[in-house]
Design goal:
The structure is a homotetramer. The first copy, chain A, is α+β, with helices and mostly antiparallel strands and about 150 residues long. Chain A has a single domain (about 5-145), classed as Roll (Thiol Ester Dehydrase, Chain A), CATH 3.10.129. In chain A, about 15% of the residues lie in helices and about 40% in strands. In chain A, strands 1-4-5-6-3 form a 5-stranded antiparallel sheet, covered by helices on one side. A 3-stranded antiparallel sheet of chain A has the order 2-7-8, with no helix packed on it. The radius of gyration of chain A is 16 Å and the shape is globular. At the A-B interface, helix 1 and strand 3 of A face helix 1 and strand 3 of B.
Chain lengths: ~150, ~150, ~150, ~150
């Protein structure tokens, strides 16, 4: 049975704009947070490969659909799933729900991102995409849930 | 003949992240900047309707495809087109090109957004979508270029 | 005996800049977070006065001294104290320490801010400073620790 | 006679918060922008030393006093002066004025920052402070205006 990962965040004052709601660009920060929390939970080190090399995970595509606004003081539950796992790429799907009575409630937004595994050279520059290391792919596979 | 709108921005230090490149979430800020610059150039007031009411333009969808990184010191040219004009919504298409020798050069990213015209009540809350006012739609029509 | 308040935050990727460290402007976001967390813990509602009016807490002064960089993956412990409580203003003092073995360790930065209690009119505009409501001042007094 | 440097910026929607005004942390972004624009105008390369080494300019202190709010659509004029030039440090002073009829008008905020010249090693890490290179100090001296 495949698994979900949930990450929660309290909406911060600085995340709002003069319309009184969370600025739409912040949902992409939240997706990234959820993704890093996911890797931490899996005890996968995203930046340092076990074989000694360095990895980076640049985004090639991101998107978000907005249904309801989030406001200062809201808590948001971000459900992360892997909708597809490719040789060199991870396709994420995110659901944003307002927390109500401690549970994920109303769907407020839905996001997607595609990140690619890339090699980093010694100067810290990204050199190009590469196959996701096996020990990472193996763990990620448990979280794959096609949309 | 339909028209383009171009907006330029110098990449700021704070826009970068530890990978040495512009953080992917900033492209959505750039799209919004281009959009506001577009409205200013058209002398359309986005927030105050001519009839006295207030308007808001919430996003219902945004997306971005990344091809090449932008770095501190780069100048980016953002080409905005309207790919579709609906009764209540504007579909934007954005091309991000690195400025080279003063001209838009290499394509670094491509974005899309859909914004909806909404009524704002006196307390400043968004009440729901509405038809785009005629005097706005009329001007926007000149910029429509289907993809 | 007067009391401390501590707030912790994991450094996020987006908080870094191309120098590989947390961008200096983010420390002011962290101070604000600590402050809101402080009010939440005290069950003081910062924005809505018990008497029905609305309050705002604009900053009149902020500052920060930087000693050591923070990096992605670090956890920072923010110690908030009230260094002075005036009729209309709160003077905060903040210590930022890197969390080491679960404890606040090395001092990485020190900040100060002065916020003023202000009345908000019905349109949401700040009208001017006012005396801090008694029920708020009473609770805050327990946290006063002159530098 | 010593000189001023002015930088202008149009306030962006994303810079605002739910109080309808520019979030206080953004003034530090504006200071940094003014500083980089200043170096560009002087044709001083802040990051790459003429002798081939790399330089960084970490902040050791920043502060800001807020007098009036800035709002979306405002244009702000940032006047940068060097209030003191030390062997290893630059002390900046900033005045933020709302642009009125094309001229710097009402003072809305005042800022200060102290940045230190630092050596960067080949891995990109900051190694410690160093004397400001002569060819940089010589140019900066013309902008020194003690407060």
């Amino acid at each position: 049975m495949s698994k979900d990962f949930h990450h929660r965040r309290l909406i911060e004052f600085v995340d709002t704009d003069m319309a009184g709601i969370v600025h739409f660009s912040n949902y992409f920060r939240y997706m990234e947070l959820a993704e890093y929390a996911f890797f931490r939970q899996l005890e996968l080190e995203m930046m340092h490969h076990r074989d000694g090399g360095k990895l980076a995970w640049p985004r090639v595509h991101v998107e978000c659909d907005y249904r309801k606004p989030l406001r200062f003081g809201d808590e948001v539950d971000i459900r992360l799933r892997i909708s597809a796992l490719r040789e060199k790429a991870i396709h994420y799907h995110f659901e944003f729900r307002r927390v109500q009575d401690g549970q994920p409630g109303e769907l407020v937004a839905e996001g997607r991102s595609i990140i690619v595994c890339a090699q980093v050279d010694e100067g810290g520059d990204i050199k190009g995409s590469r196959t996701i290391p096996d020990y990472i792919a193996e763990v990620l596979r448990k979280y794959v849930q096609p949309e």
